[in-house]
């Protein structure tokens, strides 16, 4: 198999067909169509609002495409798993529980019929994950699907940048890179670039691909990340990747070498390019604006100060567009509190804690490192990005982490026939 992460399989992965001496038959590998289901889930989470595109796309048309992708994902997953075989998953179970406060609060219709529509979308999303859980066996199979999916999305961003640089880097976004073919915002592009960069680095350290194959993904992704000027994605990548590599340093010489060179390179860059890095980080903003988190803190204070009934505090206002007073909330925890109440916040926190606890209890391995990277990245991003309470890329990242932490599915042993009873002659039975 080649080293290209976007096309080939993962050499030596646990999903390889065949048998090993002394282990008996292995479970069937996930069909290739599972990757299509995963890609359709990713398409659904791209969203319908964002930057202006080269060819104006009506929002209703984009919503039809994203919802159609979710319906197709569920239908295809059901066709691949007609007997509804699923694996136990604490993450998906908690995600299913999150539907309870979502439906109860949305039934009040305080935010309109759109809330019930979003509940149905979340239910389809969760149902598709349950159907896919059959193939969650702790192998990096879904990592490959994840990288290929977001690499294709970033490819569309590159095409838009080449075709129309002015539309792809508009002034109303401060010259930051946006999606010119599909309405993607700079934080979205930065998130996708950061996630596939971290996963590709870990696959190289785990010797699941070659350096040249990983460079095909890492180099353009880092360039796009720099063009988006997304601070959250950059910090999330650096911190989460450092935590993931630290989980490998005791068992991987490659991880130790990479960590040492990365620390040395970061120290040199901090000294030699400190002014340039500071200018890039500030993005032309004042220190006061930066400390105010670009106006986010004002929205958060207003949301927390708004009067609420006991029911609204516990169950929230219903699934909405993650905004308050017409302004984006840009915080997953406050968005969940606003829409699904304290019960929703407790469930989302339980998802993060359970995944993190399972990851810490697993022995060092490549799947564990990838899961730690994804969980850490989502936890860091949740402070300035919303999405943990609804179908979103962040829930898809956590679902990937859950698939990596699932124990390997052992083959069902064949029933052992009973030992034949030995016939004893009558004369021997009568003998004392």
Secondary-structure map:
Layout: E1 19-20, E2 24-25, H1 33-44, H2 59-80, H3 90-97, H4 99-106, H5 114-132, H6 141-163, H7 165-168, H8 186-205, H9 211-228, H10 231-246, H11 253-272, H12 274-282, H13 287-291, H14 296-305, H15 310-315, E3 323-324, E4 327-328, H16 332-361, H17 366-381, H18 393-405, H19 426-430
Helix pairs in contact: 1-2, 1-6, 2-5, 3-16, 4-5, 4-16, 6-8, 8-9, 8-10, 8-17, 10-17, 16-17, 16-18, 17-18
Question: Would you give an account of this structure?
Answer:
The chain is mostly helical. It has 19 helices and four strands. It has a two-stranded antiparallel sheet. The chain has a two-stranded antiparallel sheet with strand order 3-4. Helix 8 (186-205) runs antiparallel to helix 17 (366-381) and helix 10 (231-246) packs antiparallel against helix 17 (366-381). The longest helix has 30 residues, at 332-361. The model is unreliable at 7-27 (pLDDT under 50).
Question: Keyphrases for this structure?
Answer:
mainly alpha; 4 strands; two-stranded antiparallel ribbon; 432 residues; 61% helix; two-stranded antiparallel sheet
Low-confidence stretches: 7-27
**Quaternary structure classification:** single chain
Q: What would the principal axes of the Cα set say about the shape?
A: globular
**DSSP, total strands:** 4
How much helical structure, as a percent, in the residues?
Answer: 55-70%
Rg, please?
25 Å
Mean of residue pLDDT?
84
Strand order of the largest sheet: 1-2
Number of helices: 19
**Element order, helices and strands?**
EEHHHHHHHHHHHHHHHEEHHHH
**Ends distance:** 71 Å
Main beta sheet: 2 strands, antiparallel
Approximate strand percentage: under 5%
Class per helix and strand makeup: mainly alpha
